[in-house]
Design brief:
homodimer; about 325 residues; six-stranded parallel sheet; six-stranded mixed sheet; DNA-binding
Chain lengths: ~325, ~325
DNA sequence: GCACAAACGCGAAACGTTTCGCGTATGCAC
DNA sequence: GTGCATACGCGAAACGTTTCGCGTTTGTGC
């Protein structure tokens, strides 16, 4: 494995000149050429550890999230990865599986591994814990999708409340008065916000809230599947159901179909996230679609700004969701 | 940020003694204690770059794959990430989006970033290209899910042929003679193998192959959805359809349902991968289920063995898929 | 052809760790 | 109390890069 000294020797210059060449300095034309030749001949590559040690930065970005196998997160991470790579950063991905201890440990692990910046989808850490783990290292952070109350960092969120408000309002316009909701854990930021949109829409349309119509459990298939059964077992059934997550939506629709319940004739459903699946149906299921690409791009942009020295106050972006199919409203 | 020298000074020992402590050497009890105290007091953490520079290894593993947002890959990566973390490695994940140029670039990028080992789900690289990019660095590699012909590395695959053979045989046992298949691109390793299983099952049961019944396109929802339409538009329709991928399965089922085609009464379907969705249906859709956890664990184990010095011949494991729901056969 | 300014390249030091060989302290047996 | 073997800690060197200040070369204007 060739070093910068080997290149310098072969090119007949000093190591510092080669370094200057690599890092974009101005050199005499003849030196440029001989260095380029030497690098090619030796197949020289900069040693990233020596560089990081000296320069005190690694050009690596930590991404800490609950679960990379969830399609929404997967898509966001794809977008992040692409943006960072295009700017010469690489990504260290770490999943904590909605486990509090692991969320702590993996955050600590990323920091210990010398990340320059952090993309963080939090779940169960307090502001105190976050600062305890990161405070002394003051790593630029962008929170994505959710935020920890009391942590002042850049953040990229979606406008959960408005999106859900629109969706539920649409169901009202279609004539529904008994509209149920199946959501994820109430302790999670996004579930809370989405519930607020639901409540506000009901209230603005003069519909009384009935807590028998709201089911909060895990963000998974089973919650949607069993939620359907629980709601339909009631005497005064809902005529429409709104969901707040990909897996819940699929579980719900699957259960409805199995029971021979026609959508939307017998039961109206408004889904979340699974736009590819839902919009290709003959009678497309309307869904709230979060802009994964845009989320990733915005978050990566914020972080890169910070890494390049931007020192302004923390910024928060609320990206708008789209209702799909777009002609629905 | 405290260094090892600060710790040494505070503990009243030399830096080399602290290093010995950190790396598990044997020290006098009083030194152990004063060093531990100093580390706590200063919140000292090893600088990973200095360590990597000196020790010539980074404890980082590259994972190169097409698309992290696909649920199957996502699950495998979750398992890999967990195993490596438990052994003190972290993962550098890089997606190339089924793009040949990116597959090259990202491989090169990972190597340039000093990974100790590589987990690789290949698609479109030749053995020559692979060796050109990695040869001089001889990085321990485990190929997963697919392999490049001519690259001799450890590999973890599933027994695609047998799994599909079983699935198609099951359809035959149920009385089907016209069994269609919808698969991914024929150039991809897994699609090829799965097609072999399909052909062999037909042949073993004395069924003539009809190439109008085989559709090969992308591994996506649209392929399944349109595949249904194309197959059902034929004069001599299939009575059963077999798929080889998650998205294709969902597309196919969605299309069938929209047309009011009853499964399995009107059309029998055998799906792939989407076990969570399919087994929760009232009449569970049988699927081939790949053992994502086991794949990840086995691959991580192989790589860790190599990193710890194992020098045996390349090993290949073929893991068995399961037919779900398990009582199907 | 000379003087000066600008451009450019060089060497040394530093980043924070691990490793290696050597020297000192320790403990044991007599 | 002495001698020896062992255990332990120390200092120095090395990993490969970037950076900084200084000295040399180059070019320009007269």
């Amino acid at each position: 494995m060739a070093t910068i000294k080997d290149v310098a020797r072969m090119a007949g210059v000093s190591a510092s000149t080669v370094s200057k060449y690599i890092n974009g300095g101005h050199l005499r034309q003849e030196n440029v050429e001989s260095i380029r030749n030497a690098i090619d001949a030796l197949d020289y590559r900069v040693n990233p550890f020596a560089r990081s040690l000296k320069a005190q930065r690694s050009r690596s970005i930590g991404i800490l999230l609950p679960d990379i196998s969830a399609p929404f997160y997967g898509s966001v991470v794809m977008a992040l990865d692409k943006c960072f790579r295009e700017h010469g950063y690489h990504t260290l991905i770490s999943c904590y599986g909605s486990n509090h201890g692991l969320e702590r440990d993996n955050l600590s692990f990323l920091i210990t591994n010398g990340i320059d910046g952090l993309i963080y989808i939090p779940e169960d850490l307090s502001a105190d814990e976050f600062y305890e783990l990161t405070g002394n290292f003051s790593i630029p952070t962008v929170q994505v999708d959710r935020i920890i109350q009391g942590v002042a960092s850049d953040a990229v969120l979606v406008n959960n409340t408005d999106a859900v408000y629109q969706a539920v309002s649409l169901l009202v316009q279609r004539g529904h008065r008994r509209i149920a909701a199946i959501t994820g854990p109430k302790s999670v930021f996004t579930a809370k916000e989405r519930l607020v949109g639901y409540l506000r829409a009901l209230s603005d349309h003069g519909i009384l809230y009935d807590d028998a119509l709201v089911i909060s459990d895990e963000n998974d298939f089973a919650t949607g599947y069993r939620g359907f059964e629980a709601l339909m077992a009631q005497l005064d059934r809902p005529t429409a159901i709104f969901t707040t997550n990909y897996d819940i939506t699929i579980g719900l629709v699957t259960a409805a179909r199995e029971q021979g319940v026609r959508i939307p004739e017998d039961l109206d459903i408004f889904g979340f996230d699974c736009v590819e699946i839902c919009t290709m149906m003959k009678t497309p299921l309307p869904v709230v679609h979060q802009p994964e690409q845009e989320i990733g791009q915005t978050a990566a942009g914020y972080l890169i700004d910070r890494l390049e020295g931007y020192g302004g106050l923390p910024r928060t972006t609320r990206l708008e969701c789209r209702i799909e199919p777009s002609g629905t409203i």
